[in-house]
């Protein structure tokens, strides 16, 4: 795992899409080889693929800074989500808005970068929150701007949200209710007044924008938990033949947990406006179907075929694990040089010949960082011979710091790092190097490649893309992966990783010892299989699968014609609460009392070690 100064040229056998140019973004290749989409596509996501900002000096559009980008600090809470979602730290050439110079941030990784070429190809529309300060000055009177900036092949339609809307919809219901709830942290759910109303209002705003753009042959593809209500709103306002699909990137909780969800009935009803609903793994799809069965009694749930009929509409539920652009990580890792790595090690004061453990996470309470630190501490207690020889690098990206639970979590992580370092450090060495610096993708890939052991230990994680990025970057084939069995990634990669229970400190430390002493041939064997899987199930292949399902659902809609109207003219929650939208609290209490009277059969698979003592 020592890098040479040479750029390596070998290509992974499965790496059909490896780009020769070493560039970061999928461009021409993706357009010719990548996923093809049938018909017109409208993507809806919270974060946008391109953001317009005023250039720092107000005079030039260059916006260069010594750290390699105007937005290189992950400490800027205005955009950590964007980066963690793979969009945007790179600032490109600017345009002018009035007499002010504007720079444009482009997507550099993840789903955003993967979808961008697809949208270019189909000349589609992307609808997203416009969070850049110059976003609306460069847009037309309907808040549209042509992107990418250099060829303008598709339309970015921006939604203008007030500070109050963002605080309530994004930092409120999305991330104080849905995020903790879906991850089983019900004790962290904060149900503030107005947050759900804002969530609904913002979902309406997005749904209206979709309705303005949708045609009979459009497919609307919504991303994630910020839009649980929008699918039904959209379904009711677009032509019957328009396909509505959504991918839910985080876990769907068990019914035991979901019964605590404020306005849970409205959320279920909302997502059942989709024709197609995707999750990463079977478990989340099954949890969803169980929630529908329990909390929407008039719905018909076909568990085997994963089809729900409710209110005269049919939703197909699928489990399709998301991948990464493996070729791009492979390429960037191969391009890493010893010089680049040396300067990183110098910056963080790490001896070059140290054995490296690595963790890369958003600073989020789901990611199990304190548990990881506890295991490292136990490992150091038990293995004095590793002192001075092993360094653990924890790269943590600040996230959602407006929310107290995140602030407290960050304080805990930092103080634990400090304490463990105080306990074991020597004059020349400290066991844990902790950084919140944003790493550009070259540095990240160089570190992935160099890491002897990658530690992925979330308490719960929908998928975990870092796992796959590490594998794709392990071009020397000799790294080992410790992987929590509570991640979606474990379902597909667990058999060849070293499985850990993140809360079993002794077991975790033992696995770390095992990883560090694993014979080279076993490492290579395991990594070879892992790499084959990650390349086979990469981002393009995931999109192809999604698009195949969309095609299938479209043809089903086409064959059956307009779906049956609701035979009773009303839907469950309307009927039970006696009103339509806006009846959240009544729906909630009825949903609770109904579910509480039923026995909980699913608690064995529930990850709720965080059950609240009080109802939320
Ligand atoms: C959600 C679900 C699901 C982080 N710091 C830097 C950096 N990152 C990038 C990583 C990775 C991404 O952030 C984190 O993705 P994960 O999948 O690990 O986790 P979440 O952000 O929680 O994502 C998750 C995912 O959605 C997709 O469906 O897998 O389960 O929770 O791409 O590389 N990237 C760079 N520098 C950093 O400092 N370049």
Automatic annotation (TrEMBL):
Family matches, as Pfam families: Glyco_transf_20
Superkingdom of the source species: Archaea
CDD domains given in the database record: GT20_TPS
InterPro entries associated with the record: Glyco_trans_20
GO MF terms, alphabetically ordered: alpha,alpha-trehalose-phosphate synthase (UDP-forming) activity; trehalose-phosphatase activity
GO CC terms in record: cytosol
Biased composition (Low complexity): 584-602
One of the GO BP terms on file: trehalose biosynthetic process
Renumbered residue ranges of the record's region Disordered: 1-116, 557-616
Biased composition (Basic and acidic residues): 18-28, 568-577, 604-616
PANTHER family recorded: BCDNA.GH08860, TREHALOSE-6-PHOSPHATE SYNTHASE
Descriptive protein name: Trehalose-6-phosphate synthase
């Amino acid at each position: 795992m020592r890098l040479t100064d040479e750029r390596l040229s070998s290509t992974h056998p499965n790496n059909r899409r490896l780009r020769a140019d070493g560039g970061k973004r999928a461009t021409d290749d993706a357009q010719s080889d990548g996923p093809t989409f049938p018909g017109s596509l409208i993507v809806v996501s919270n974060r946008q693929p391109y953001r317009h900002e005023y250039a720092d000096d107000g005079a030039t559009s260059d916006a260069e800074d010594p750290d390699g980008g105007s937005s290189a600090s992950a400490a800027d809470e205005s955009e950590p989500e964007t980066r963690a979602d793979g969009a945007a730290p790179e600032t490109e050439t600017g345009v002018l808005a009035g007499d002010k110079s504007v720079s444009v941030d482009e997507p550099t990784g993840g789903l955003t970068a993967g979808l961008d070429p697809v949208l270019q190809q189909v000349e589609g529309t992307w609808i997203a929150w416009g969070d850049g300060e110059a976003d609306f000055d460069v847009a037309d009177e309907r808040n549209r701007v042509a992107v990418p900036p250099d060829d303008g092949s598709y339309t970015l339609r921006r939604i203008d949200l007030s500070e109050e809307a963002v605080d309530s919809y994004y930092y409120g219901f999305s991330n104080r209710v849905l995020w903790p709830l879906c991850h089983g942290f019900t004790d962290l759910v904060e149900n503030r007044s107005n947050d759900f109303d804002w969530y609904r209002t913002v979902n309406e705003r997005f749904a209206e924008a979709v309705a303005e753009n949708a045609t009979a042959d459009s497919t609307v593809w919504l991303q994630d938990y910020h839009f649980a209500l929008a699918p039904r709103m959209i379904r009711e306002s677009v032509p019957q033949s328009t396909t509505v699909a959504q991918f839910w990137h985080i876990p769907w909780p068990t019914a035991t947990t979901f019964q605590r969800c404020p306005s849970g009935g409205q959320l279920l009803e909302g997502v059942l406006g989709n024709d197609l609903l995707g999750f990463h793994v079977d478990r989340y799809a099954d949890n969803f179907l169980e929630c529908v069965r329990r909390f929407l009694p008039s719905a018909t749930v076909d568990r085997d075929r994963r089809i729900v009929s409710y209110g005269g509409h049919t939703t197909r539920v699928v489990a399709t694990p998301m991948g990464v652009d493996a070729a791009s990580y492979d390429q960037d890792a191969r391009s890493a040089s010893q010089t680049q790595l040396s300067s990183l090690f110098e910056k963080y004061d790490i001896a070059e010949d140290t054995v490296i453990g690595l963790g890369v996470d958003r600073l989020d309470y789901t990611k199990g960082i304190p548990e990881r630190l506890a295991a490292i501490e136990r490992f150091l207690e038990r293995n004095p011979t590793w002192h001075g020889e092993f360094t653990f690098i924890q790269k943590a990206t600040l996230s959602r710091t407006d929310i107290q639970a995140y602030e407290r979590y960050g304080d805990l992580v930092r103080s634990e790092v400090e304490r463990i370092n105080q306990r074991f450090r020597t004059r020349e060495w400290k066991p844990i190097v902790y950084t919140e610096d944003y790493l550009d993708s070259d540095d990240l890939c160089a570190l992935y490649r160099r890491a002897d052991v990658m530690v992925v230990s979330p308490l719960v994680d929908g998928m975990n893309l870092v796992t796959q990025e590490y594998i794709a970057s392990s071009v020397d084939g000799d790294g080992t992966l410790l992987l929590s069995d509570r991640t979606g990634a474990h379902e597909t990669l667990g058999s060849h990783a070293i499985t850990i229970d993140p809360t079993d400190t002794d077991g975790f430390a033992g696995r770390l010892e095992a990883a560090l002493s694993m014979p080279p041939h076993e490492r290579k064997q395991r990594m070879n299989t892992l790499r084959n899987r990650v390349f086979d199930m990469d981002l393009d292949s995931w999109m192809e699968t999604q698009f195949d399902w969309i095609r299938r659902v479209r043809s089903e809609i086409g064959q059956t014609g307009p779906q049956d109207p609701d035979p009773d003219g009303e839907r469950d929650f309307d009927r039970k609460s006696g009103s339509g939208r806006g009846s959240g609290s009544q729906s909630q209490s009825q949903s609770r009392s109904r579910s509480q009277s039923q026995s909980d059969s699913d608690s064995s698979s529930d990850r709720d070690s965080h059950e609240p003592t009080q109802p939320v």
